[in-house]
Design a protein that fits this description.
Blueprint lengths: L1 H27 L2 H17 L1 H4 L6 H18 L20 H17 L2 H12 L4 H8 L3 H18 L11 H5 L1
Helix pairs in contact: 1-2, 1-4, 1-6, 2-4, 6-8, 7-8
Length: 177
Amino acid sequence: MNQLADESFEEFVRCRSAHLYKLALLLTGHQADAQDLLQLVLERAYRRRTTLIRGRDPEPYVRKVMVNAAIDHRRLVRRRSERPLEDAGSRAQPGDPFAQVADRDLVVRWLALLPPRQRIVLVLRYWEDLPEAEVAAALGCSVGTVKSQTSRGLTRLRQLAGQSPDSQVGSAKAVMS
């Protein structure tokens, strides 16, 4: 049974580690923190590999552990001081891959400036494309809390983008994908 569990877990890590790293990066905002978070989460999941493979998809468990670990990490580490963002400058033409990378980088840096709960809710809602009920279950809060944190987070992102809170912004998922 342990060999089967090991093989199944290795397959899960092989298939999903790139996606999980991106999720960790969005939750933490820093590459080193994302690598540490992913390593911690995979270590915890490995310890439970025999129970995880019994007919269930391990990803929801891993995602919940990652969210909780990201929140715990933020509690332990002193909050980093805000740094002003460099002006994005002139926008390149649509379809320019370099402009898309710059836009994604800017969104990741803006996400890093949000409070942890708002960042986590936005990442789970728009990057992971989870419904509000699943985000609430992952965070152990109500759907109303998810809605209010989403609203506050999007408002703050609009402020960082230099737009008024009432203006329409393109889908956060389009920028994050």
